[in-house]
Records
---
Amino acid sequence: MGAKHSDALVFFGATGDLAFKKIFPSLQGLIKDEGFDRPIIGVSRSASLDKLKKRAQESLEQHGDLDEDAFQKLTELLRAVQGNYDDQGTYEKLRQELGQAERPLHYLAIPPSMFGEVSEGLAKSGCADKAR
């Protein structure tokens, strides 16, 4: 039986230092080198989609050697969910943003003390069903 691949990537802490220094450059590399073409959803307390795109560009200019073609693809794939991790409405917005995605990959670039709260929110909203 073949393994089913994730059909969306969700990362929490989209405006944090880890995203800025490591995740955005890695996403650009994944797109450039591997042809990644799934929705990328950044979840944060404060970023609209426009702010998240600007943050990604600044990140790549400082830490990832901005590649115009790969960055263009990244901005096309990028989505944003703005909300607090302790608000179930944030996870409902995430569920809507996932659309038809059934097997999202969730990456928690947040303090470990928040893992339980985020995991619970994902489970209650159905975002954790069949997820990684």
Note: The CA atoms of residues 15 and 116 lie 20 Å apart.
---
Amino acid sequence: MTADDLRAFEAEVAELFEAGRIAAPVHLSGGNEDQLIEIFSAVRPEDWVFSTWRSHYHALLKGISREEVLHQILAGRSMFISSPKHNFYASSIMGGILPIACGVAAGGARVWCFVGDMCASTGAY
């Protein structure tokens, strides 16, 4: 997946939201596509990825199909996309993903956990 693919996906989601096709909140990303592509080049299929409410790029780069991510967004799950098949889980609870990621890592799995600056500033991190 390229940076242009990611940007095109988010543009489509924005259009669907503006057209009223998505009834739940969505949080779009932008400006960090190249950095995420570089990070995800080291993520293996068996690794777990935990994300925040801004998870579309993470889900796509983890290997969840564009169609499945869009399906979850249209179903109102933009902020908590998940796919056990892909070892991917996101939560809209600020800081809520941290204890889950720590538990999975303590169990011996390789874990990638993405948090936002708000989480880092609140002390939950």
Note: Strands lie at 48-51, 82-83, 88-90, 111-113.
